[in-house]
Structures are given as structure tokens and as C-alpha cells.
Write a structure and sequence with these properties.
Metallopeptidase (SprT family), alpha+beta, SprT-like_domain, 2 domains, 210 residues, 18% strand, disordered C terminus
């Protein structure tokens, strides 16, 4: 049985990203892939997103424009808030929502909307992804400000990626191929959510010490 532990990470400029990441130890045989959520369920997710955006605007006492919602996320992420240029969007994983619809409607939707609202209110300031601003909004929503939660992901299609060793000031991290390439192209940087220091490739650190 494959289970998940969901949380968020933050990418540096020019693309700021927050997502619910799943850890998937391989154990049992992989079942048949599940069917993603249908149009009526997508509409529920969109309306829930609009509801929490309105709630965030009320608590922050500011006008929040609608955020684009897409259902193109795959792999082990349940949801992701991202900013590219001036475009904000929340991406949801239709397969994980299909498997645990009520749970993700209650937790993933407000989780990502809170990231969107924090970005709109405090902009490009360097804030911790799940810092006091985010946690305060989750409390306002009446949703526990959980960074991680366990879900069974049996049947969710997962693409295996090579992981690259990175280090911060406190420990080593395994970074996906996509993130590693973004770092190499200078499109993103990543910070540890524990010590808030920037992640650097292990090979780069070794080379710089010669």
C-alpha cells in the first residue's frame, strides 16, 4: 500500500511555488490507475476555491482577484500554488482528489488558497512557506494548519524521477530532476523550510571547497 505525506515547499524567483508533496514507499503491487474527478467534482473544487478566496479577502480586508484553477497536476502532489510573471494559479491533482475527494476539498483547497492570499497580501517578501501569516489564515478558515497528512495513494499514477543530493545549513535533501534543472538554468532556487537557508547541489559545494 502506498501512502502519502503531504506538505509544501517554496521555489525562489522568478517562479514561486507551493505544493502538497507525497512520499511514496514502494511495497504492494500497483493497482489499476484510478479515474480522475469528473466535471461536477471539478466545479465543486472551483467553487470551494472561490469561497476560500472570498474568506481570505474578508479576513485580510482587501480585494483579492480570482485565482486561475487548473486540474493538470500529476504525480505525488495534491495541490500547488505558483506564480509565473504576474499570473497566479492553483493546480490540483485530479487523481488524488478522486481518491480522497472530501479530504482534499477540506484541506488541500484552503491550504493552497492561503498561500495565494499570503502572496497577494505580502508579495515578494521572504516569508516562511508555512509561517505565521499562512497559519493565521488557516485558523481563520477553521481548518487545522497542517503541513503534512497521511493518505493512501494506491492507484495514483506516479512517474519516478531521479533525485539529486542538495544541502542546506542543517541537512541533506533529495531534489527532483525538474527542480534540479530549474536550478541549473537559473530559473528557481529553493530554501529549507526548517532553517530557511538556500539549498545548493552537493557537487557544487564540493567543487567550491577545493
Amino acid at each position: 500500500m502506498r501512502r502519502s505525506s503531504a506538505g509544501c515547499s517554496c521555489a525562489g524567483r522568478p517562479c514561486r511555488i507551493h505544493w502538497a508533496r507525497i512520499q511514496t514507499p514502494s511495497e504492494a503491487p500497483v493497482p489499476d490507475p484510478i479515474v480522475p474527478i469528473d466535471a461536477s467534482q471539478r466545479l465543486q473544487v472551483e467553487r470551494a476555491t472561490e469561497h476560500f478566496v472570498a474568506e481570505a479577502a474578508r479576513h485580510l480586508q482587501l480585494s483579492l482577484p480570482p485565482v486561475a484553477v487548473v486540474f493538470d497536476l500529476s504525480g505525488t502532489a495534491a495541490g500547488m500554488f505558483s506564480v509565473q510573471g504576474r499570473r497566479c494559479q492553483i493546480r490540483y491533482n485530479p487523481w488524488i482528489f478522486a481518491l480522497h475527494f472530501a479530504e482534499n476539498l477540506r484541506h488541500t483547497v484552503p491550504h493552497e488558497v492561503a498561500h495565494y492570499a499570503v502572496y497577494r497580501r505580502w508579495g515578494q517578501r521572504r516569508l516562511r512557506p508555512h509561517g505565521p501569516e499562512w497559519r493565521w489564515l488557516m485558523d481563520c478558515f477553521g481548518v487545522p494548519p497542517r503541513v503534512t497528512f497521511d493518505l493512501d495513494l494506491a492507484g495514483v499514477p506516479v512517474r519516478r524521477q531521479r533525485r539529486y543530493p542538495y544541502r542546506c545549513a542543517c541537512r541533506e535533501h533529495a531534489v527532483s530532476t525538474v527542480r534540479h534543472r530549474r536550478v541549473l538554468r537559473g530559473q528557481a532556487s529553493y530554501r529549507c523550510r526548517d532553517c530557511d537557508s538556500e539549498l545548493t547541489p552537493v557537487a557544487e559545494r564540493l567543487a567550491s571547497s577545493d
